[in-house]
């Protein structure tokens, strides 16, 4: 009996043999390498690479539209700038993914508060672009508070909703509703109806994961539909977008032209740089970059990108099946739902099944604020899905390097 147990313990120790798996590296980087979800990291790297190719394809059209006739405005101007933003954003993503969860929780609460204050200042101090005030001019560049608020809002809501486990008498759901309502009001003042929908949808999804009563969830769904109807009648931006989508009223040129551009390349596309319809798109490098991909690389490439987003969402949700921390589950699920929903809305607009919302395609569209904010969000996601790979392999515990490690 003792020999059998001893043999199993030795087998368990072999699983964490530092010489075999490089576990002798006890540095923060070494621990991060073994705990990070490398499949998820690879999927994100592929998505960023695809985004660079897409921005290179869209950059000539965007440069022609926004150059103002300047001879110094290179065709690949936006491509070069996107490389610079990626060079800045990727270290941020990796650095955040190496942090412990508790530290990220505290930083997210502070970040959410700062971004909400900035969001409140946007209507008064913001720079107007295409009829909307969504950016604060910092001198060296523009800062879009709503983009940075997204990940911090999710983590803050996850912490708030997880408090219900320790004390069910706390008015958690009411408090979360008030915070979400304040964010919605601030966004609609810009106006930014699309982001308002994303914040509300992610909040309801997190309530469902937190175990809110089904009747209340149904009530919230009905309230959301009523809110959209009221927005249609009393909110000019929503009225114009919905009329344009449903009845073809007003300026519906953008979504119609995007659909024509998307399908112009057929299944396999016209080839890199061979697209011509992209020069007629209003925002070829941001809102309508998915249509540029369709024209130059084909509908099959568009399908593969959609599947890549689906793979990222599915990977995270499957990873959370073995997670025990309710805070980590809510935070990671909320972040990946928000990520997937933004991608879905952008693609839906490009294929003309949703009204135009001015929303970028995550990690593919050009944008400094967007790239940096998404890197923060995915850094948080990677941190909340980190796990010691040896924790569930065996019921036998081995003392190794001062730690108790299961085989």
Secondary structure topology:
Elements: H1 2-15, H2 18-21, H3 28-35, H4 38-66, H5 77-97, H6 101-125, E1 127-129, E2 132-137, E3 142-143, H7 145-162, H8 172-188, H9 193-210, H10 214-234, H11 236-247, H12 253-264, H13 289-297, H14 299-319, H15 326-350, H16 368-384, E4 397-400, E5 403-406
Antiparallel strand pairs: 1-2, 2-3, 4-5
Helix pairs in contact: 4-5, 4-13, 4-14, 5-16, 6-7, 7-8, 7-9, 7-15, 7-16, 8-9, 9-10, 9-15, 10-11, 12-13, 13-14, 14-15, 15-16
Short descriptors:
16 helices, peptidoglycan synthesis, glycosyltransferase, single chain, two-stranded antiparallel ribbon, 5% strand, 3-stranded antiparallel beta sheet, disordered C terminus
Outline the structure in words:
There is one protein chain. This protein is mainly alpha-helical and 407 residues long. It is built from 16 helices and five strands. It has one domain. Helices cover 67% and strands 5% of the residues. The radius of gyration is 23 Å and the shape is globular. The two termini are 19 Å apart.
C-alpha Rg, in Å?
23 Å
Q: Please provide the ordered H/E string of secondary-structure elements.
A: HHHHHHEEEHHHHHHHHHHEE
Based on CA inertia axes, which overall geometry fits? Answer: globular
Q: What structural category do the secondary elements indicate?
A: mainly alpha
How many domains? The number is 1
Low-confidence stretches: 8-21, 393-407
Number of strand elements: 5
Terminal CA distance reads 19 Å
Spatially, the strands of the biggest sheet line up as 1-2-3
Organism: Sphingomonas cremea
Pfam families: FTSW_RODA_SPOVE
Keywords: Cell shape, Glycosyltransferase, Membrane, Peptidoglycan synthesis, Transferase, Transmembrane, Transmembrane helix
Main location: membrane
């Amino acid at each position: 009996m003792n020999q059998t147990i001893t043999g199993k313990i030795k087998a368990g120790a072999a699983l964490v043999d530092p010489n075999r798996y490089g576990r002798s590296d006890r540095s923060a980087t070494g621990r991060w390498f073994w705990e990070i979800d490398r499949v998820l990291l690879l999927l994100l790297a592929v998505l960023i690479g695809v985004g660079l190719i897409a921005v290179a394809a869209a950059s000539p059209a965007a440069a022609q539209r926004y150059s103002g006739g300047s001879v110094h405005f290179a065709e690949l101007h936006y491509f070069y700038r996107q490389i610079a933003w990626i060079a800045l954003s990727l270290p941020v993503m990796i650095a955040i993914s190496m942090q412990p969860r508790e530290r990220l929780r505290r930083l997210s609460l502070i970040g959410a508060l700062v971004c909400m204050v900035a969001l409140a200042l946007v209507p008064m101090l913001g720079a107007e672009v295409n009829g909307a005030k969504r950016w604060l001019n910092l001198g060296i560049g523009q800062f879009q508070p709503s983009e940075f608020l997204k990940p911090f809002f999710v983590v803050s809501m996850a912490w708030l909703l997880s408090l219900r486990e320790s004390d069910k008498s706390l008015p958690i759901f009411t408090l979360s509703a008030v915070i979400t309502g304040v964010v919605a009001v601030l966004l609609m003042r810009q106006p930014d109806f699309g982001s308002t929908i994303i914040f509300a949808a992610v909040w309801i999804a997190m309530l469902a994961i937190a175990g809110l009563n089904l009747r209340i969830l149904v009530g919230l769904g009905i309230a959301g539909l009523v809110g959209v109807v009221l927005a249609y009648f009393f909110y000019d931006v929503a009225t114009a977008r919905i009329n344009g989508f449903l009845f073809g009223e007003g300026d519906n040129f953008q979504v119609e032209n995007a659909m024509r551009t998307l399908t112009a390349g057929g299944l396999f596309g016209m080839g890199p740089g061979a697209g011509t319809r992209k020069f007629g798109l209003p925002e070829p490098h941001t809102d309508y970059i998915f249509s540029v991909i369709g024209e130059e690389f084909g509908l099959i490439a568009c399908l593969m990108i959609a599947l890549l987003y689906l793979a990222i969402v599915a990977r995270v949700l499957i990873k959370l099946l073995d997670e025990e921390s309710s805070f980590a589950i809510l935070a990671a699920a909320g972040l990946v739902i928000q990520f997937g929903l933004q991608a879905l809305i952008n693609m839906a607009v490009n294929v003309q099944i949703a009204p135009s919302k001015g929303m970028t395609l995550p990690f593919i569209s050009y944008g400094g604020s967007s790239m940096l904010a998404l890197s923060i969000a995915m850094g948080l996601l990677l941190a909340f899905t980190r796990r010691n790979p040896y924790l569930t392999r065996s019921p036998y515990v081995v003392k190794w390097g001062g730690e108790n490690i299961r085989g």
